[in-house]
Amino acid sequence: MFGSGLSNQTGAAVGALAFPVLGPLGVVAVRQYVAALVLLAVGRPRLRSFTWRQWWPVLLLGAVFGTMNLSLYSAVDRIGLGLAVTLEFLGPLTIALAASRRRLDAGCAVLAAAGVVVLMRPRPSADYSGMALGLVAACCWASYILLNRLVGQRLPGAQGAAAAATVSALAFLPPGIAVALRHPPTAGAVLCAVTAGLLSSAVPYLADLLTLRHVPAQTFGLFMSVNPVLAAVVGRVVLDQHLGGAEWAAVGAVVVANAASIATTRT
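Predicted structure:
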């Protein structure tokens, strides 16, 4: 679980190193290509046998997958990895809290909201466009979770995920080509983008697949809470992005809210 989280955040940080050459759009395009190749090899979807009832959630999932990564990487470019991932993490946290009627979960929601208020407080250095992109990524992640459930019910194994990744990769072909023509990529930038795809898509997917065979889903969800902290640490080490005391407190509030909600949920 730790390796999966660290790989995911390190991949995002390595991808950010290619932003000066490829920009977030170019990096995300390469990441989508890599994700599609990996998932196609694992899922082996029988695309010709899909019905419309199976295709429409797959198409939506592909659109959400691409939008989620593009909005997240664009947010990373503007506000840094730690804050972008913290805002994105509000998506699964909202899903976890939405159906609950417990007072504890209401308190967790208030704690997470307080963290967001701290992050988005008015100050000269605030980049509200970057924060808005982080919130778009959060909405996409929430939608991604719901659509994944639906796709999983209608298609066996990883066929749905593989088909959705392929749809997303095809959608990113034209903008990817346009970026390459306007800004010819260097070998180093392409290597960073491919590495981002492998570390943020291939490694976490396979690691999570193996982990969930041995670890209860509740424990897995609880450990996911550490991702904003990992993102902040990796951003500091790889990208030299520093968080102030208030930002660390906001990250901590979101992490504690998610951890408290999952840890006290009865299975």
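Summary: The chain has a mean pLDDT of 89.
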